[in-house]
């Protein structure tokens, strides 16, 4: 159960970064398929939902299992590392997504 948040964060990073800016802005030539350019926007949105959901899930596990009164863990350090792992995956996904330039000819 504890590893699923990290797995979903990594899947979210893949989902968010596979959509180009052209698909989101409507500049790309991708108009085929079942939904056309809307499918790319839905994929992008679902990627962010999965990423934020994984971060919220790690926070629930941290406060529910590591910080509760009847905790079986003697230290909260692994819980903090667990939350930071998911937080840093989400932040790196956002930095890679919005910090790059997709100019093919420049």
Task: Give your account of this protein's structure.
The chain is mainly alpha-helical and 106 residues long. The protein is built from four helices and no strands. The protein has helices at residues 4-17, 21-25, 37-66, 77-98. The relative contact order is 0.18.
Instruction: Give helix and strand order, one letter per element, not per position.
Output: HHHH
**β-sheet strand percentage:** under 5%
Reported for the largest beta sheet, the result is: none
Label the overall shape: elongated
SSE blueprint and pairings:
Blueprint: H1 4-17, H2 21-25, H3 37-66, H4 77-98
Helix pairs in contact: 1-3, 1-4, 3-4
In short:
This protein is mainly α.
Q: Keyphrases for this structure?
A:
106 residues
């Amino acid at each position: 159960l504890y590893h699923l948040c990290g797995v979903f964060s990594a899947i979210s990073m893949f989902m968010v970064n596979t959509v180009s800016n052209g698909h989101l802005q409507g500049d790309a030539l991708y108009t085929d398929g079942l939904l056309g350019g809307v499918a790319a926007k839905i994929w992008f949105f679902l990627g962010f939902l999965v990423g934020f959901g994984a971060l919220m899930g790690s926070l629930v596990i941290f406060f529910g299992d590591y910080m509760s009164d009847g905790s079986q863990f003697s230290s909260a350090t692994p819980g903090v590392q667990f939350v930071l792992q998911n937080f840093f995956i989400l932040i790196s996904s956002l930095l890679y997504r919005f910090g790059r330039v997709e100019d093919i000819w420049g």
